[in-house]
Amino acid sequence: MRFTLFSFPFLNTPDRQAVSSQERGQAPSLGVLSRRRALLAGLGCLPPLLPASAMARHPAPQSKAARSLHILTFSGKIAGIQSKILFKPYEQLAHQTIIPHGWNGQISDLEHVIKQTHRPLAAAMMESSSLRIGCNLKLLSRHQTDSSISNCGQPSAAIDYAMAWDRARFDAAPNWPDFWDVARHPGRRSLRRDPRLTLEIALLADGVPANALYSALATTEGVNRAFLKLEQLRPYIVWWSTPEEAGHILTSGGALMGCVPTGEILGISGPDRQRFGLHWQQRFLVQYGWGVLTAAARNPAALAFVSWLEQPAQQQAFANAWPSLPSITELNALAPRLSHVPPAIMVDDTFWEANLEKLSDRFQQWIHHV
């Protein structure tokens, strides 16, 4: 896979005016550092825009610590693939060390993570709805000269979530209503400790069509319906907070069936892969992106790294490496009546940007029996 280092979309933006002035022999203002120059400087492709006196005061090369970027991502298979496909190639291209740290992706925990981390964090991978919320809360930022609607990050990865089950315990492939049928299928179920995905799944199990999920959740009646459905399953639920944890609960036998990233199942090696089936008909697609932390918004290296991750070449590289869909042969073996993989249900980031806070409050109250 060949990675494009300088295919940044802003190369054809008004920032080009600064370059044109130099081409005409006019000196640019030292007080203005365009986003283009900041990012290219972060990749080590342009000298810093500092007066000679300032450069004389800082003649020493960067230390190893200064060349390191600490980032937040998801531990397990996701981080493993990112390290091989994205982080290592970037380190070779930009001579920048990427140091990943695992986290749960919750925007409510971001401030706590920042305070508890001894070294400054540059960027974090999270759901697109969290990116938008983090930007509104001023926890995330991009370069101050970028006034676009995506200046706090844009989707750069998509991950499918589906129901997985232990095939040894089922004669036929179950669906979401079967997920609630503890009389016919006794055992524990695993769900995400977050209203996102969980409330949608509850409504699917209660018979709400996929194309009506968010119109239902936009009403008090629909939200009540989702929580009443969850209440039926409460004693049997095992909660997870990260993609890695979702996979581990199932593979360790902690639950009979559960919601899990499909890659956590498809990525299992050896004979254990055949232990689990996946419900492809009503799976969800969750979009993720990278946000630059506000404290790193003036760090050209952080801006360059995230902009590079957002480029199509890097998005495609991760999509190719992350196991998401089965082969046709495997699909027919898992579900003989399914001739093709139906489209996933897209999680509505706009809905969750507007409603996550209030639904999270109610969700936490419900979990703690308040």
UniProtKB/TrEMBL annotation:
<protein>
    <recommendedName>
        <fullName>ABC transporter substrate-binding protein</fullName>
    </recommendedName>
</protein>
<dbReference type="InterPro" id="IPR006059">
    <property type="entry name" value="SBP"/>
</dbReference>
<dbReference type="Pfam" id="PF13416">
    <property type="entry name" value="SBP_bac_8"/>
</dbReference>
